[in-house]
Amino acid sequence: MRLHSKYNATLHSAGGLTDEQRQTAEQKFLEVLEHALGGASAVRGAYVEWTAVRSMRAENPGGCRSSEELQAIARWEQAAEHATRAVFRQMQIAAQNAFFELEVWNSRTH
After folding, report:
1. What are the pLDDT digits (tens) for 17-67?
2. What Cα–Cα distance (Å) separates residue 55 from each residue in 58, 69, 72?
3. Would you say the C-alpha torsion 16, 104, 84, 13 has a positive or negative sign?
4. What does the alpha-carbon distance between residue 56 and residue 47 come to, in Å, rounded to a whole number?
């Protein structure tokens, strides 16, 4: 767990991995994300921004889409997809339905 960054990743639906392999994959995923987005605070910020935009869209599906909203979605989704593919390729993870989930917590509560 990466206490300094206030988030962690969990790999789901990747059967056949040991706990050590799963933890290594989760760590590598975060490292690739941090490199792609520019550091730990940028990962947290991009994720929080992405979830906020997705939440607003869910509440108002017919609303206007600003270029900032579209950029926030694209930035996170491209970085997460890149990190997932890089880790799966590097660690030879072939599970079709496997995915990483990021958990970000509020700095006031943790």
Report:
1. 999 999 999 999 999 999 999 999 999 999 999 999 988 878 877 776 788
2. 5, 11, 12
3. positive
4. 14
